[in-house]
Amino acid sequence: MATLIDANKVKYLCSCKRLKPLSYLYYCKYCKPFTLKCKDCVIHEIDQKFFCANCFDNKVQKEVMSVKYKCASCFNCPVCKNLLLIRASSIKPPKDGVQSPLAVSQSSPALVTQTPNASSSNPATPQQSPQAPQQGQKVFYLICVFCRWTTRDVGIPDVTSAPGGWKLQENPHVKRIQELTEGYKVIAAREKLEKDRKKYPNLKRRSLYISGSSSSSSILHADKYGILAPVQKRLAATASIGNQNLDPQITMEQQFRSLVKPAQTVDSFEELPEDFFANPPNINSITSINQRHANPDFQPSKASELYPLNKFYQSKESKRCSGCEHNVLKPESNVISIKFKLHQMALFLVPEVRIMTIPKWTLNEENEVILSITNRYESDVTVSFVNIDNENVLNLSGFKPTAKIEFKTRDDLSIVIDRQDNSKVQQAQLKQSDLETNGFLCFRRDNKIAVKCTVTPFLSNTEIKDHVKCVFGLKCSINMPEISSPQVQGSTPTTKENFVNSVITHYVFVDFGPLRLEDGLKVVPTPRFIDDCLKASLNK
């Protein structure tokens, strides 16, 4: 049953000639003709407000870049990548005149009382009553509730303030990395400047610089309508090399060596200890590849070197249509909200097709299959099925059909799928028009129907790995709201919304699985509720 509800078994044709599941597609109500769009057909826009998914701390991009996009208060487990929780404990204060190490108690805060002998031996100190307890100091540590890993396992000391008590690890090579980054920025800016000089040979050099003393003499300051915005971008890119020597006789390699110290070669390596060859390795003390790559700055090789991983700041993403640049997906600006201001998913417009039954396949013979169709649109949708014989459609995106699907019904048959109404629950029952289809439509309930079709595999060989694949057309008639132009100022707004009947044909590619059902795969018979629906309709 898990294979039947897998969305990757039924795919739709995108506008870029790719096959995607319906849950991965979008639609734009402004584009004509209507087409489906995948993530490669839309423009991705990242929100400039970043937030932590755990503590909801939000910052702007400049603040997040200064902390390397890491939250200082939230951590993930370096072993299982789950969230680490903060646990509090108490330490016993040392006795009078005794410098003892701090003893950490895992239980509730310990209460220590001063003995009468200790108080009487020192007359300078005021005598305290035995009932006056002395509370220990509270400390905090991190623990994973899944794998039970704690910061105490690797020797990380407890902190007295949480959150924010655990500092970020400092990379010992951070100075070298910054030095290389600055050097490559200078080289990239110089290459861009030389490229611009070749592209604009007649442009005067003085027009590339802004006079800091007199803004009126600068051409860029006199720009009123932003015509010179591209020039300003080039100036920002070349600002880092304004004071560098741009002598053409000095090559880029010479300039790079003058800015960055060359790396030192390693002549010898430390020999491995004898225990590495004599004793078997302890797997529990060695980190895995995923654990090392989770912390790329240090890549710990031993389990004792693991350190809590800071959670990264996240940002919400908006998506625009690449054709008309209208939004197709826009989330709420509030970081706590998971809702969308605009959510044009194809799943809410196009009927969803799923596999309901899988028979025992017979080669070159008709096999009866039942498909379910669900309507999630806000109004009724009229659908009809089209048999595809065009080779150009069959060979799209490398999809090679190995079977032929047929809907044995008349060509002018159209089926109306009701909209989803959560206010009332309808029983599974066919309408009078459904009974006239001669068993083609075998189930109806709320916004879901089921139809029968025949699939004929025509595989040349009978290998187990060969899958039964077919293509058909789903013709939909949907009442979509008419997109009108903005109203002219002074005109009376119209409260009535006009709807236009749009007829769209979607190409559906279905993969029924392997021809021979082996390795635990079984035949999925007709569900019992379909037979009950047919009996209830006939008795009526």
- β-strand percent reads 25-35%
Mean pLDDT: 77
- Overall shape: extended
Calculate Rg over CA atoms.
Answer: 35 Å
Give the tally of β-strands.
Answer: 25
If helices are DSSP runs of H or I spanning 4 or more residues, what is the number of helices?
Answer: 10
Give an overview of the whole structure.
- By secondary structure, the chain is of the alpha+beta class.
- Among the domains are: 198 residues, no CATH class; 58 residues, no CATH class; 70 residues, no CATH class.
- 16% of the residues lie in helices and 27% in strands.
- α3 runs antiparallel to α5.
- The longest helix is centred in the middle third of the chain and has 26 residues.
- About 10% of the residues have low confidence.
Quick gist of this model?
By secondary structure, this protein is α+β, with helices and mostly antiparallel strands. It is built from ten helices and 25 strands.
Topology:
Blueprint: E1 10-13, E2 19-20, E3 26-27, E4 36-37, E5 42-51, E6 58-60, H1 61-66, E7 70-76, E8 85-92, E9 103-105, E10 111-112, H2 116-121, E11 134-135, E12 137-143, H3 174-199, H4 229-238, H5 252-259, H6 275-278, H7 289-293, E13 309-312, E14 314-321, E15 327-331, E16 340-343, E17 352-355, E18 367-374, E19 381-387, H8 391-394, E20 403-406, E21 415-417, H9 432-435, E22 441-445, E23 448-457, E24 467-481, E25 499-514, H10 528-539
Helix pairs in contact: 3-5
